[in-house]
Amino acid sequence: MTPAGRAPAAGPATGRIPPLVEQFKGGLAAPICLTWEWTYACNLSCVHCLSSSGRRDPLELSTAEIMAVVDELAAMQVFYVNVGGGEPTVRPDFWELLDYTVAHRVGVKFSTNGLRIDRPGARRLAGMGYVDVQISLDGANQEVNDAIRGPGSFDMALRAMHNLAEAGFGEFKISVVLTRHNVSQLDDFAALADRLGAILRITRLRPSGRGADVWDRLHPTAEQQREVYSWLLERGERVLTGDSFFHLNALGATPLPGLNLCGAGRVVCLIDPVGDVYACPFAIHEAFLAGNVRSPGGFGGVWRDSPLFTRLRMPAAGGACNSCPAFGACQGGCMAAKFFTGLPLDGPDPECVRGHGLASRPPAGRPKPPRPGKDHSHRGRPVALGMPSRRIPAKLCDSSPLAADR
Amino acid sequence: MISPFDPARRYRLSPEVALRPEPFGALAYHFGNRRLCFLKVPELVEVVRGLGAYSSAGDAVSGLPGQDRAACLRALASLAAAGVIVPDGAGSAGQP
Questions:
Q1: Sign of CA dihedral A182, A184, A190, A196
Q2: Is residue A388 over pLDDT 90?
Q3: Rounded distance, CA A40 to CA A220, Å?
Q4: Among A35, A121, A11, A8, which Cα is nearest to A336's?
Q5: Is A301 helix (H, G, I), strand (E, B) or coil?
């Protein structure tokens, strides 16, 4: 969803009120867009996973700890959270946590690869108010999707979608990360969403987590970026974007709908499975670590008082972008995308539509861009048995998050 | 479904809406349609919170300076369209 951007703003227009986007730069009393990853465990190993998920972390928040954070969020009037992972539904207490959160008037939109959305699961979800489901799909056909998300993931996602549609869930979301291989499928995704009574959501590929390893060969080309921009201007009304394409606004006079601003630490943040609070879901690195919900001040203390967030809420200088006439439109782009491609944070985005980003990028590998801060990827040694992609897991729980729970 | 905003009617904050104070004013969240709205000035927040105590929306803004009054009524109209404020039914007249 794009809560901030699509929401109407009401206020006397006497000219003394700065635009909302300026007011947001100083930060809000509580986040509007809080991503909360409930586990690093995942049944898949998507090549672009922004949290490098796979194996459960033994220090993950317990059921009681998650509930305590929910209580705090309810008191802070955080009206909904975006739950993800990992695959959040592999937590054995997933349904219990879902019920608890919703009962405390904190809405849940959760992202899933569809693993647990069987027919009974879909019926259960359809019967709950205040829950939204987002199924990840990165190709409109099996070939494109499974190359990114792994064998069987296309069928699993489609099965979940059909189950939700059949259960009468209503408008669930189909969530697509745009890559070089699926930009040409935008119309197909939109048609699939229409057919299933769903809403299409497209977001930007970030070089975060394992995405850092594949970003160079998967991020859309400059030509494709222009295609995405035009497509969104034409079809954007029915398509959600998480406001993630604001760097494309420098392409034309018409801004894309949404909040065109990096919200990190201002309106956005991430709580990871072990309770660490980061400035945004794409910035799992100690440079963007603001604190932990287990600290005495809890989540609220981190949000209000962390030195990192205080710094992010101060007016930022445009750096190298200051002299660019498009700076007002693109705001310099995405902080995480710059960081993990080795670019200065006050300079252009690596996908700067005017080409300034790549031009200022250090030569390949020198100096090396920062590596993601945590890696929970499935371990395993590739083995040569005539099946190059086969891996032998070191332990059963390395490949199956379900095994870890038993 | 939502009748046009009428400044002569009594309005109140929808029971489905929560207001969260913010540095710029307030954030309004509608639990029914899951939409967020932003009340961009503190004066508007005061008016919205106090709406139910006045016999009409027009009355509720009568204390504001002239130019702000019209702007505030426009803001109330957009909040009514979003379901943040709702006309007070005859049965519950007088209830804040």
A1: negative
A2: no
A3: 27
A4: A35
A5: helix
Its pTM stands at 0.88
Q: By the 8 A CB rule, do A243 and A4 touch?
A: yes
CB of A90 closer than 8 Å to CB of A37: no
When CB atoms are compared, the residue of A11, A27, A107 closest to B25 is A11
Please, how many CA atoms are within 13 Å of residue A27, restricted to the half-sphere of its CB?
Answer: 20
- Average pLDDT taken over every residue of chain A: 89
Give A116's DSSP letter: T
Q: Which two tokens stand for residue A12?
A: 């006397």
Q: Which of A243-247, A304-308, A380-384 has the lowest mean pLDDT?
A: A380-384
Cα(A41)–Cα(A116) distance, rounded to whole angstroms?
Answer: 14
Pairing between β-strand B35-39 and β-strand B25-30 as defined by DSSP bridges:
antiparallel
B25 touches chain A (CB under 8 A): yes
**CA quadruple A72, A77, A80, A85: dihedral sign:** negative
Interchain proximity B38–A7, CB inside 8 Å? yes
> A27: nearest CA in chain B?
B23
Amino acid at A178: L
DSSP class of residue A193 equals: H
Report the complex ipTM: 0.85
Q: What's the CA gap between A280 and A29, in Å, rounded?
A: 16
∠ CA A247-B38-A26, nearest 5°, is 60
- In chain B, where do the E strands start and end? 11-13, 17-22, 25-30, 35-39, 85-87
Contact A245, A256 (CB under 8 A): yes
B94 touches A: beta carbon within 8 Å: no
Q: Are A174 and A135 in contact (CB under 8 A)?
A: yes
The 10 Å Cβ neighbour count of residue A78 is: 26
Three-state SS letters, A234-281: HHHHHEECCCCCHHHHHHCCCCCCCCCCCCECCCEEEECCCCEEECCC
The dihedrals phi and psi of B26, each to the nearest 5 degrees, come to -160, 160
Residue A144, amino acid = V
